[in-house]
Design a protein that fits this description.
Elements lengths: L1 H13 L5 H8 L15 H18 L23 H20 L17 H11 L28 H6 L4 H27 L34 H6 L32 E5 L5 E7 L2 E4 L6 H16 L1 H35 L10 E7 L6 H14 L4 E5 L2 E4 H7 L9 H4 L11 H6 L7 H8 L8 H17 L2 E8 L7 H11 L7 E8 L2 H6 L6 H17 L5 H7 L2 E7 L27 H22 L5 E2 L2 E2 L6 H9 L2 E4 L7 H9 L3 E4 L1 H7 L8 H7 L3 E3 L4 H4 L5 H13 L3 H14 L4 H8 L13 H4 L3 H27 L10 H13 L28 H16 L8
Parallel strand pairs: 4-7, 7-8, 8-9, 9-10, 11-12, 12-13, 13-14
Antiparallel strand pairs: 1-2, 2-3, 5-6
Helix pairs in contact: 1-3, 3-33, 7-9, 7-31, 7-33, 9-22, 10-23, 10-25, 10-31, 10-33, 17-20, 19-21, 21-22
Bound molecules: zinc ion (ZN).
Length: about 900
C-alpha cells in the first residue's frame, strides 16, 4: 500500500511542471501535512484518492458495452470504440460531445473554436440563434446566472438533456448536486451582501444618465461626423485648452469651489451608533422611526463566513473547483491555438486603436508612493535649491527650515541620489513587510517623510500637493492612463476627514484622470498602545461619524461633500501576514474591544462593510454617490481574508493566495469579482514573479487587471503602469489583444462614472459578450469577448443544472417546454441590448449565446471519482495518507 502511495505521489510531482501554482504552493507558506480540512488543495493527494476511487468504482460497476437505457442521445458514426474502462466513466460524456460535434459537422476530437474570417455582427447573431438549439451551449436560466429567484415559472424547466445524463449513477449525482448546490448557495450569500450595500453595477446614483460630473471630463476628441482626421489633429485635441495655465499649474484650473452646489440638510433622517458598533440610519414612517436599511448583523456575517469557509475546505468541492479551473485553462489554450490569428487580424483591421491609446486605469496605487523615485528626488532637490529657508517642520520643541533639516541630516542637495534616497524595494523586503514600511521614509528619515509625503503636517501638505499636481499633469499628458489613488484616513480623530478634504479642495487636486479611494490602515493596536483610543468603537466613530454628518447635512462639511464626489470606495490596508490569533469564540462588540490585541481582518472588514451599508443607503436616498469596498485581500496570511472579501467586497487587490484555494478561486470566477493584481509588488514582497498566478488567472478568465501598487518602491520608469504591463507582456508573452483586454478589465473594475466609461468603451459597455464590446474603442475583438462570455455561461449553467437537479429530486418532471422554445425565448431576450428585465441581483444581463463549442463536461469523469472518495475513505482507507 505504501509503495503504491509513493508511486502516486511521484506521479503527482511529475505533473508539477505544468502546474506552476502547485509548485508555488510548496515554498512560500508552510503546508500542512494533509490538505484535508483546509481550503488548500493538494494535487498529489487528490491523485492518490482518484486512483483508489477508480478501483472501487470499477468493482462496483462492471463494464457496460452499450450506453445506459436512460441515455437518449444519438451516437455519431464518428464515435470511436471505447475500451471498457473508458466507457465506464466517460461513456455518457463522450457520446454527448460527439453528438454535438456531429450535429455541427466538425470532426471528432477537435473542439473547434474557429470562427469565420469574415465575421460580422449580423452573422454572429444569426449563428447564435441557430446554435442555441444545442442544450450544452445554452445558458441555463433566463438570467444566465441560473438564480432560482430570478426565474419565472414559465422558464423554470431545465434543459431536458441535463436530467437524462445525470441519472447515470445516483450516488455520484447526489455528490455532484451537493457541490453545485453549495456553489450556488455561496453565490447567493454574496449577492445578498452586495445588493444590501448597494455595491452592484448601476446601484450608484453616479452611474445614472443625469449625473453631473464637476469639473466635466474633457470633450471627446472625435466629432460625431467621424470626419477622417490626421494623426496630427488627433494629437492636438488634448486636455489643453487656451485658458488653461501651462504645466502642472493647469491641474484643476476648471475647478472652483464656489461654483459647487452644496445641498441642504435632510431633517427627517437621523443616524446613531448602536451598541453593536454599527451606525443605523432611521426615518420617520407613519409616525414611528424605522431603519432605512437592515444591516446584516455580525453574527449573521460570521455564520455565512463559516459556511463558505467550510465548503471551501470540503474535499470533493475542492477537487471539483480545481478540475473546473484546470478545464477552463485548457479550453483557453485550445481557444488561443485556433483563434489567435483571427484575433490579430481583427485588431489589425481596426483603425486608430492600439494598446497605447486604449484607456487603462491603475486600479490599485497608494497615493503616498504614486510618484517614481527620480521624480521625488528631483522635487526634493528643487525645494532645497529654491526655498531652503522655508519653515517646514516643528520638531523637538523648535521650528526648522528645510536647510536646517538637511543640515541635521548632514546632507546637501549635491549628495542626494536615488541610492541615498533608498526607497526602492526589490531586494531586501521579501517577506519583510516591516522593512517595506520603512521604505516610505526618504533616506530612512521619518522627518523627510513627514515633510514631503504627508497631507497633514506643518506646511499643511503643501509639498505633497505640489508633487501630486505634477503626477496628475503627467497622467493628463498621457491622456490614456488613469489612476485611483488610495489615501489614508487613520481613524485617530474626528477631524481627519475635514483636513483631508480641505487639502484636496484647497490645492484643487481634481483631474479627469484621477479618482480617490480611502484606505483605513488596521492599526488599532498601535493607537491603543499609545493611548489615542480606548476601544475599537472610537475608531469606527472617527471614521464614520463625519461621513454620516456630511451626508445628512452637506453644509456641515462643505469641502468634504465636494471631495466625496470624487471618492469611489474604501480599502483596508496593512500587513496581511501578521498572525491572527483567535482569542474569542465570539467576538466582543467594538465598544467592548478594549484589549491590546488587534481585531482580525474579518472583523475590520465587517465593520467597514456594515457602516458603509448604512452610509450608502443614506447617500443613495439623497442622490449622492455611493461607495464600494475594495480591500487588499489575499496578498498573504490567512485564506479567511479572501472569504470575507468574497462575501462583502465589490472587488479586491492582490488575491494571489487564491491560487491555493481552488474553490474560492472558482467562486471569484463565477461572480466575476474584480482582482487588481500587482505582480511586481508581489515580487518584491511576497511571491517571486515566475510563481505569480497572474497568468493562470488570466487564462482561466478571472476578472483581473494590472496595477502598480507603489510606483515609488517598485517601478523604474516614468510610466509605472506601462512598466507593469510591459514586464507582464514580456514574461508571459502577452499579445496586444491580451493587454487590451486587461486594460478593458481595469476600466470596468474602476469607479469612474458610467458616462465616462461609456465614452471610453462604447455604448452598453456592461452588456455581456460582443453586445457590449466596441472593438474600435477597446481594441478587444468580439471573438475574444464572446469566448470569455461563453466559457462563463457554461460554468454557470453547469452549476445551475446540478443545483436545480437536486431541488427537482422530489418532483422528477422535467417541464413541458421543449428546448427549442426555451432557446427561442433566450435568444429573443439576449438579442435586445435594452432588455433589462432579467437582471440578476447584482445587475448582470442575460448572457448571450455564441457559436463557440467547448464541451463542458470534460471535468466530470475526474470529478466523479471524488464521489466515491468519501465512501472509499470511510470504508477502506485505513493507512495514513501519502503526506
Ligand atoms: Zn497596495
Amino acid at each position: 500500500m505504501s509503495n503504491m502511495m509513493r508511486v502516486l505521489s511521484d506521479e503527482g510531482d511529475e505533473f508539477q511542471h505544468i502546474r506552476p501554482e502547485e509548485q508555488a504552493s510548496d515554498d512560500d507558506l508552510p503546508q500542512s501535512p494533509s490538505s484535508a480540512g483546509t481550503p488548500f488543495f493538494s494535487y498529489a493527494e487528490d491523485r492518490a484518492f482518484t486512483d483508489l476511487d477508480a478501483k472501487y468504482w470499477a468493482q462496483a460497476h462492471p463494464p457496460a458495452s452499450s450506453p445506459p437505457a436512460s441515455m437518449s442521445f444519438r451516437r455519431s458514426s464518428a464515435t470511436p470504440s471505447l475500451t471498457p474502462s473508458q466507457s465506464a466513466l466517460s461513456d455518457s460524456f463522450r457520446s454527448l460531445h460527439l453528438d454535438n460535434h456531429s450535429r455541427n459537422s466538425t470532426t471528432e476530437g477537435s473542439f473547434l473554436l474557429e470562427r469565420n474570417a469574415e465575421r460580422s455582427p449580423v452573422r454572429t447573431k444569426t449563428q447564435s440563434a441557430s446554435s442555441v438549439d444545442d442544450p450544452y451551449l445554452k445558458p441555463a436560466g433566463p438570467s444566465g446566472l441560473g438564480l432560482p429567484e430570478q426565474r419565472d415559472s414559465a422558464n423554470s424547466s431545465r434543459p431536458q438533456g441535463a436530467a437524462e445524463y445525470i441519472t447515470h449513477d445516483e450516488d455520484m449525482d447526489i455528490e455532484l448536486q451537493m457541490i453545485c448546490k453549495s456553489v450556488q448557495k455561496c453565490l447567493e450569500i454574496r449577492h445578498k451582501y452586495i445588493s444590501r450595500s448597494n455595491q452592484g453595477p448601476r446601484d450608484n446614483p453616479r452611474d445614472q444618465p443625469d449625473w453631473k460630473i464637476y469639473p466635466a471630463p474633457p470633450a471627446p476628441s472625435w466629432t460625431a461626423s467621424k470626419e477622417p482626421r490626421t494623426n496630427k489633429e488627433e494629437d492636438s485635441v488634448s486636455q489643453m485648452s487656451p485658458s488653461r495655465p501651462e504645466g502642472a499649474d493647469g491641474v484643476g484650473w476648471d475647478f472652483n469651489f464656489e461654483a459647487c452646489h452644496i445641498p441642504e440638510i435632510k431633517d427627517d433622517i437621523e443616524f446613531s451608533l448602536d451598541n453593536t458598533g454599527v451606525y443605523q440610519v432611521s426615518k420617520n414612517i407613519d409616525g414611528h422611526r424605522s431603519n432605512i436599511v437592515q444591516v446584516p448583523s455580525i453574527r449573521e456575517y460570521y455564520m455565512d463566513l463559516e459556511e463558505i469557509s467550510n465548503t471551501s475546505s470540503d474535499g470533493p468541492s475542492k477537487s471539483f473547483a480545481f478540475r473546473r479551473l484546470q478545464y477552463l485553462e485548457a479550453s483557453w489554450n485550445l481557444y488561443i491555438l485556433t483563434n489567435e490569428y483571427q484575433e490579430l487580424a481583427d485588431t489589425k483591421r481596426n483603425p486608430h486603436r492600439d494598446f497605447y491609446n486604449v484607456r487603462k486605469v491603475d486600479t490599485h496605487v497608494h497615493h503616498s508612493a504614486c510618484m517614481n523615485q527620480k521624480h521625488l528626488l528631483r522635487f526634493i532637490k528643487s525645494k532645497m535649491k529654491k526655498c531652503p529657508d522655508e519653515v517646514v517642520i516643528f520638531r523637538d520643541g523648535k521650528l526648522l527650515t528645510l536647510q536646517q533639516v538637511f543640515e541635521s541630516l548632514n546632507l546637501t542637495a549635491y549628495d542626494l541620489s536615488i541610492d541615498t534616497l533608498d526607497m526602492h524595494a526589490h531586494r531586501d523586503t521579501f517577506h519583510r513587510f516591516d522593512k517595506f514600511n520603512l521604505k516610505y521614509n526618504p533616506i530612512g528619515e521619518s522627518r523627510l517623510r513627514e515633510i514631503f509625503l504627508k497631507t497633514d503636517n506643518y506646511i499643511k501638505g503643501k509639498y505633497l500637493a505640489e508633487l501630486t499636481r505634477e503626477v496628475f499633469y503627467d497622467l493628463e499628458q498621457s491622456k490614456y492612463q488613469m489612476a485611483e489613488y488610495r489615501i489614508s484616513i487613520y481613524g485617530k480623530s474626528l477631524n481627519e476627514w475635514d483636513r483631508l478634504a480641505e487639502w484636496v479642495v484647497d490645492y484643487k487636486l481634481f483631474s479627469s484622470n484621477v479618482r480617490w479611494l480611502i484606505q483605513f490602515p488596521r492599526l488599532y493596536e498601535v493607537y491603543k498602545a499609545t493611548g489615542i483610543v480606548n476601544n475599537f468603537e472610537q475608531i469606527i466613530k472617527n471614521i464614520f461619524q463625519p461621513l454620516f454628518e456630511v451626508s445628512k447635512d452637506p453644509s456641515s462639511h462643505p469641502k468634504l461633500h465636494v471631495f466625496l464626489q470624487r471618492v469611489i470606495g474604501f480599502d483596508s490596508v496593512d500587513d496581511e501576514s501578521k498572525p491572527e490569533r483567535r482569542l474569542y469564540r465570539k467576538f466582543p462588540y467594538p465598544s467592548e474591544w478594549t484589549t491590546a490585541q488587534n481585531p482580525p481582518y474579518s472583523y475590520y472588514l465587517y465593520y467597514l462593510y456594515a457602516n458603509m451599508t448604512s452610509l450608502n443607503a443614506l447617500r443613495k436616498g439623497r442622490g449622492f454617490n455611493t461607495l464600494v469596498l475594495r480591500p487588499h485581500s489575499g496578498e498573504a496570511g490567512d485564506t479567511e481574508h479572501l472569504v470575507s472579501a468574497f462575501l462583502i467586497a465589490h472587488s479586491i487587490s492582490h488575491g494571489i493566495l487564491l491560487r491555493k484555494v481552488p474553490f474560492l478561486q472558482y467562486l471569484f470566477y463565477l461572480d466575476k469579482v474584480g482582482i487588481a493584481m500587482s505582480p511586481l509588488s508581489n515580487n518584491a514582497l511576497f511571491l517571486a514573479y515566475d510563481k505569480n498566478p497572474f497568468f493562470s488567472y488570466f487564462k482561466r478568465g478571472l476578472n483581473i487587471s494590472l496595477s502598480t501598487d507603489d510606483p515609488l518602491q517598485f517601478a523604474y520608469t516614468k510610466e509605472a503602469l506601462i512598466e507593469e504591463y510591459s514586464v507582464a507582456a514580456q514574461i508571459y508573452r502577452l499579445s496586444s489583444v491580451d493587454m487590451c483586454e486587461l486594460a478593458k478589465n481595469s476600466v470596468l473594475q474602476s469607479g469612474f462614472e458610467a458616462a465616462v466609461k461609456e465614452h471610453w468603451l462604447g455604448q452598453g459597455f456592461d452588456l455581456p459578450g460582443s453586445l457590449g464590446t466596441h472593438v474600435e474603442k477597446s481594441n478587444v475583438p468580439a471573438v475574444r469577448v464572446d469566448y470569455r462570455q461563453m466559457a462563463h455561461d457554461q460554468e454557470l449553467s453547469l452549476v445551475y443544472k446540478y443545483s436545480e437537479a437536486s431541488k427537482d429530486q422530489s418532483q422528477p418532471s422535467v417541464g413541458s417546454k421543449s428546448i427549442s422554445s426555451v432557446s427561442t425565448e433566450l435568444s429573443n431576450n439576449s438579442s435586445s441590448p435594452e432588455h433589462t428585465s432579467h437582471l440578476d441581483p447584482i445587475g448582470r444581463r442575460p448572457s448571450m449565446t455564441s457559436n463557440f463549442q467547448i464541451p463542458e463536461t470534460h471535468g466530470f469523469p475526474g470529478l466523479k471519482h471524488q464521489a466515491v472518495s468519501r465512501r472509499a475513505t470511510s470504508t477502506a482507507l485505513t493507512e495514513p495518507s501519502p503526506h
